[in-house]
């Protein structure tokens, strides 16, 4: 791809078959006995929302592995219902990843599992993944696996609703940027600036990410110093959520996290119906979440959604792809859905007619846009995949088709990279990334329609 050009068109069925083969080979190479590592180099353990996205793709080609993927993650669920964002592989040597289990020390916490984990969570896309895994490969085995997983998915949602509604308004509060999934997004610059830490702190640690990826593409040492300060504050309180509102350094209601929270209840309603359970409570909670997302996080002045910093009780941050995530909510009111489509088609994120340009993670027109640095500009398949679902759900199949084309073209041009330059299409981060391969498989299954999900 050339700078500023639209992605090249992929060829015929042979080209698509080759992409499918590449995706399957990537997932097979990253399989680790009962789960898939996101990357053999950068991320050698199990990550929470990675496993959810990976299960969606595995259902297309290895359905039994899709259910093993989810089951292995939920075996590390804490007694309070939280699903940790990292589950550490005990076979890996100490120091193989930073920050590793020796920093998290999850065993100190009441209700932590026997295996070492982090104490944080990630966007709850797991119920949606479970529902889609069943839809992609229905049958008795999938139904039995879904039935076994359903109580754990309910417990995950109950934890978020009961323990993390720190504002008392029906939304989940994240307590670390890592919980958003978009670690160093410009959305967090303002709340992170209030976290007391110095870059010099990192002299005591050895980062492994910059050994496998260009440091100019990764979060800075100051970012990491602040990340560790927040982890220490949470860990030293035993990972208890009871006292977070009394001074925890990072408390934010995130649009993407809460959109996933609401979408999970819609998925659980479908699962409950299939299993003969009552879908009513899930539908009721989904409606409450959507109402709260609009009431608390929508900014009518900009026509998009923004994070709310609970420490200042105001919307913060520049316009990022987080603001488009509420399209995931099928009951998002028409006024807000239409405003988000305008935002998605603007020069900030797409193009006016087709949206066949790679979706950036941050506003292309903003001064802090960095097309090479992690979540400060590059294009990620998981974000495009989520926005595409939202476009389909709200009646924009033409825009969804353009976005699908852009994502397939990125992989056709650069392979299954972790993320991509949003203008040139150059592959960035890990060259063999799990969720890129998995979501490519889902995108290549053209017969899948969101409306039938």
UniProtKB/TrEMBL annotation:
Q: Which UniProt keywords apply?
A: Glycosidase, Hydrolase
Which Pfam families does UniProt cross-reference here?
A: MGH1-like_GH (PF22422)
**Similarity field:** Belongs to the glycosyl hydrolase 63 family.
Residues forming the Mannosylglycerate hydrolase MGH1-like glycoside hydrolase domain are: 43-436
Protein name according to UniProt: Mannosylglycerate hydrolase MGH1-like glycoside hydrolase domain-containing protein
Establish whether keyword Hydrolase is in the entry.
Answer: yes
The record's annotation in Gene3D superfamilies points to: 1.50.10.10
